[in-house]
Every structure is written in C-alpha cells, then in structure tokens.
Amino acid sequence: MDQYTLNLLVVGASFALYIGIAIWARAGSTSEFYAAGRGVHPVTNGMATAADWMSAASFISMAGLIAFGGYTASSFLMGWTGGYVLLALLLAPYLRKFGKFTVPEFIGDRFYSQTARLVAVACLIIASVTYVIGQMTGAGVAFARFLEVSNTTGLLIGAGIVFAYAVLGGMKGITYTQVAQYVVLITAYTIPAVFISLQLTGVALPPIGLFSEYTATGEPLLARLDLVIQDLGFAAYTMQDTSFLPMLNMFLFTMSLMIGTAGLPHVIIRFFTVPRVSDARWSAGWALVFIALLYLTAPAVGAMARLNLVDTIFPNGATEQPIAYDERPDWIKNWEITGLLKFEDKNGDGLIQWYNDRNANFTATAEARGWQGSELTVNNDILVLANPEIAGLPGWVIALIAAGGLAAALSTAAGLLLAISSAVSHDLIKGAINPKISERGELLAARISMAAAISLATYLGLNPPGFAAQTVALAFGIAAASLFPVLMMGIFSSRINNHGAVAGMLTGLIFTVVYIFLHKGWFFIPGTNSFEDTIAGSLFGIQSTAIGAVGAILNFAVAYLVSKMTADTPQEIKDLVQSVRIPRGAGAAAADH
Amino acid sequence: MSDKDKALAYWKANLRLIVISLIIWTIVSFGFGIVLRPLLSGIAVGGTDLGFWFAQQGSILVFLALIFIYAWRMNALDRAHGVEEE
Asked: Residue A294 CA to chain centroid, in angstroms?
C-alpha cells in the first residue's frame, strides 16, 4: 500500500470516529450545549482540556521552536504548563462554583455591570478569533502535505467535520470528540519520539534520553549538540544570556504565557463541565498530566531532531565536509516539494553547507572553508511532521502524524468556536439584546452563532490576513492583560467594584494592543511600526510578545486605585464573593438552569 | 464559632495554601529555570546543568505535584471546615 492511501485510510478512520461521536453526543438543552450538562468526569475533562489546549502550535511548531531556540525556548514549556497552576489555584474551582455558562457572564455579574460584560465579550472575541485563524491555516497545511488536496479543499473538509460535531453537540459533542482527538494526537507525537530516542541514546523514554549519552560518540547528548552546532557558528544549545534585559524578557515572556493561559476563555469554560468544585481542582491536575506527556517529550524531540539534522548534513562531523546534494535522503526530497525546506548551491560545489551565516565571528572560518552563505533553509514547522521519515519509521506512523496534526488543530478550533458562539448567544443575545428568549430559542441562537463562527473562521483561514503568524502574541497578550486580572480580583477581593474592573480591563487591553501595534505595525500592516521588535530596538527594552505581563500589572493597579476612589461594592456582591469561595451548594447553583 | 467566622477561617487556610504553592511555583520556574540558573551551573545534569533541567523538565513535574497536592489538601480542608459539597 502506498503512503498516500495509508494517509487517507488513517485520517479517514479518525474522521469517521469524530462523526460517530457527534451523532451519539447530540445536545438537547442549553446546559448540554454550553457545559455538557455538567456531567463530565474530571479525568475525561482533563483529557478533553488537554486536546482543547494543545493546538497546531503545540503539536507542529513547538518542538521546532525549541530545536532552533534551545534553552531560550524553555519559556514556551514553562509558560504553557505553569498557567495550569494558576487556573487550578486561582480560578477554576471558584468559577465552577459560580455555576454559569460563560466568562463574560461571571465578569458582568460580579462587577454588576453590563459594560464590564460587554468589554469582556470584546476581549474574548478578539483573543479567540485571532487564535482560531492559526488553527484553520494549520489544518490546511496538514491536509495539503499529507492528502495532496489543495489548501482550500482541505480547509473546507476540516470545517465540515467541526461543523458536524460542534453545531450538533455543542460542548457535549466537542468534549467527547476532544477525548478521541487527544488519544490520536498523543499517540502520533510519542511513537516517533520514542523511536528516535532509542536510535540516538538507547533510552526509550525521550525525557530521560534527552539527558543521556549519545551512543554514537559516548558523550552526553546535549554536550554533543552544543559542540556540533558551535562548530557551525550557532550559539550553544543550552546557553543562557545572563545580562539583564534578555533575562528580563525571558521572565516576562514566560509570565505572559502563564497568565495568558489561565485567562483564555476556551480553557476556562472546560472547567464548567465537571459536576463539582472538587472535581474542577482534580480536573486541572489531570489536564496537566495529559498536557505534560507532550510537553515533557517536546524538548527531547527538538534537541534530537536538531542533532539528527546536523548528522544528516555532516555525516562525518561538523568540522568535515557536508553531504552532496545528489546524495540527500528521501525525506529531504519530500519536504523540498512543499517549499518548507530549500537548498541553494551558493558556492556551486554541489555540497550542502548549513551554518550560521549571520554570526560575524564565524565569517573567517566559513571563508576559510570556501563557504559563501548557508545553503539550506529549514522551516520550524517541519521537524515534528518529518520526524518519522527522518527516523525511517514505517508508513503508518507517518499517516498517524497527519491524523495527529489535524486532531490538534481541529480540537482547539472547536473549543475556541464554542467560546465565541456562547459569548454571542448567551452574553450578547440573551444577556443584552433579548433577555426573554426561550430555552429553545437560545439553543437555536447558539447553533446559528456556532455556524456563523465556523464560516468566519474558514473564511479567515482561506484568506489569512497578513498578521496570521503574529496572532499568538496578540491572543495571549489580551487574555493576560485584560481577562485574567479581573477574574482573579473578582474572586480574591470583594472591594474591586464595577468602575475599577472596567477601567482595569480597558487599561490592560489598550496598553497591550497599542504596544504590540507599535512594534508589529498598526493592525499588523508592515512598515507602520515605530519601533523594532527586538530587545535593543523596543520602546521599554521589552519585546512585544512579553508585554502582556506588564499590561496585567497595570490592570491590577488601575482597578485597585479606581475602586479605592469610588463607592464600595454593594452587600449582595460581597455575599456573591463569599458564596463563590465556598464549595458547598455548587449543585444548587447548577440546578438553576 | 459563627458561620461567618468559620468561612473566614476556611478562607485564611486556603490563602495560606495558595501562597505557599505559588512561592514554590515561582522558585522552580522563574527561579531555578531562569534567574537562579547561573547559581546552579555547577550542578551537572546529563551534559548540561540543573537550571536547564528545571527549565525544560523539572518545573513541569513540580507544577503537576503542586496541583494534585493542592486538590488533595483543599478537599481535606473543605471537610474539616464543613463546607464540602453535599
């Protein structure tokens, strides 16, 4: 059986499974549509949360970012997991106790302000829509590479599948599909990693293999990697820049990712689906268990893929001659077709020279070796996708990677779409436009908003605005600077009032968005930026990706000061805060619906 | 003790647990993983140093432990203060 048929079979089987679950898990009420009837087991919810959370960026891009970023890229690992500690300790149990359906609903009730609720809806929609574009384009790439359909056809198929289970089943359908998608994506991610770890170190567990000996030379793997890439003019893999600003940027970037993670509405609403407050606590732990399986593996995948790549190009060591272009392995040929890997023979010797040609200290060495610029460009995103081919694994593993990449993109897209559509139907339509809408009417409105959100996401996926690649910074920045602080203050302080919350959210939001635009260009239009987005060129010496943490601090400070200067919160709000802090009575809160 | 005092005692115990957990959370990630890494560079781990291990593995493992210990301790606190769910 050829690879293409195999890909079709495996991806087709996974899709059939998702559709089957969609038909089985139809939603009959708004409670089922928004919160899966609050009947999801904490372990099941943990698994669904893991799939919801791990996007195309986690599955496809992160290992590549680590491979080429080395130690500095640890921010992604700590940031995207550390946020779950904040969720478990500071938000999830209390928001579950509150017992409503959306994040803006909590903000509107706690701060007794329709304005606060609408500002929260705006933050939620901007953060989620920018995030979903990346998922749709990710799904399109996976389709194009593995199923050899056009990007457009691929996207439409993906959107059709999400449409089937998200519109029919709402949160209930999405939850159980995400469980299946988690199993597909974690299997696809770990199998090639285990084989590569065995090949390089003889250790089956990749996180252990990363710190073991490289069997080919007997040195520790990371020491070997440091050595060979320095021979090619790159910075050592494990190197840390210990001067003040780089350290500050890494600190703030990690912090922004952590509080952004905890403030992303599509993650928070997953904790509304469990039966009890204590389940919300356990469930956050289980979510991190399932996430950690991938996040502990990713740094091993990154380092090993980088070493494998160097060894493929320089089979006799980085100080010897590289391989000839005509003798390159098949996987390089396969990825050249996609354009994600390119070779240009700059010095015309027929050999593949791959080194850091931007390192001024290395120019002399390169000239002495007759090199006239690095001849290979490798896109970050291909490392995970090409891993099974690099390791020479059988065809079904390659097919599984295709299904895994699609599962990661589609599961996250569905979670985001639910967050968007419930904000529209529950917060805008029922909350602001037509409060008297019937349960049936609201359910219909929820389904129509979902269909509209999918259409919008598909349109944006087909016509990605120029800023598609920049949007992650925007989504995390907004979640960190606007939503997380008011959610936390709403629970931990009964003194923060309506004016404080609105002023805080707007300050955090505007500061962060303006700072990002000043560095990335207004509305991401190239050339309209006033500052370069590097540590040296930026306004405060802080890169725009790390600014969300500063926005969050401003949000806290402004909310506190404005609340101090205006009237105290009414007694019923103090009572609400008290009731949210105590688990007893969570069942009763749910029964209101 | 009145209901209000009981609720206050429960909340104080919870805050104490949260503060301790977040101190550990800060030390392993922002501390060992970033700011304190140069101080730990003498401790070799698999071809690199302890700070690198914390940044790419250790902090995640500690996060996991923190959440489960918090859930376990809080469920015990709920019962001790009589505020657990029916």
From this structure: 12
Handedness of CA A198, A203, A205, A206 (dihedral sign): negative
Give the CATH number of domain A3-307+390-591.
Answer: 1.20.1730.10
CB contacts, 8 Å: B51 with chain A: 240
The end-to-end CA distance of chain B, in Å, is: 21
What pLDDT, in 10s, does the model give residues A520-554?
Answer: 888 777 788 888 888 888 888 899 889 999 999 99
For A294-330, what is the HEC assignment? HHHHHHHHHHHHHHHHHHHHCCCCCCCCCCEHHHCCH
Name the H helices within A314-394. 330-338, 363-368, 382-390
Q: Report yes or no: A584 and B84 within 8 Å, Cβ to Cβ.
A: yes
Q: What is the mean pLDDT of chain B?
A: 93
Q: Mark which residues 162-221 of A lie under 8 Å from B by CB.
A: 207, 210-212, 219-221
**d(C-alpha B18, C-alpha A263), whole Å:** 18
**Which element (helix H / strand E) includes A341?**
strand A341-343
Domain ranges of chain B: 6-80
The alpha carbon of residue A70 is apart from the nearest alpha carbon of chain B, in Å, by 10
Return the residue matching tokens 């060495």. A365
User: What is the interface pTM, i.e. ipTM, of the complex?
Assistant: 0.96
Instruction: Write out pLDDT tens, residues B33-58.
Output: 999 999 998 898 888 999 999 999 99
Question: What are the pLDDT digits (tens) for A134-184?
Answer: 788 777 777 777 777 777 888 888 888 888 878 888 888 899 999 999 999
**Distances in whole angstroms, Cα of residue A582 to Cα of each of A101, A341, A410, B4, B68:** 19, 55, 36, 12, 19
Cβ neighbours of A240 in B, within 8 Å: 37-38, 51
Q: pLDDT per residue over A62-108, tens digit each?
A: 898 899 999 999 999 999 999 999 999 999 999 999 988 999 999 99
Contact flag A587-B30 (C-beta cutoff 8 Å): no
pLDDT at A591 over 70: no
Alpha-carbon A385 to chain mean position: 17
Could B49 and A285 be called an inter-chain contact, meaning their C-beta atoms sit closer than 8 Å?
Answer: no
**Cβ contacts (< 8 Å) between B7 and chain A: which residues?**
578, 581-582
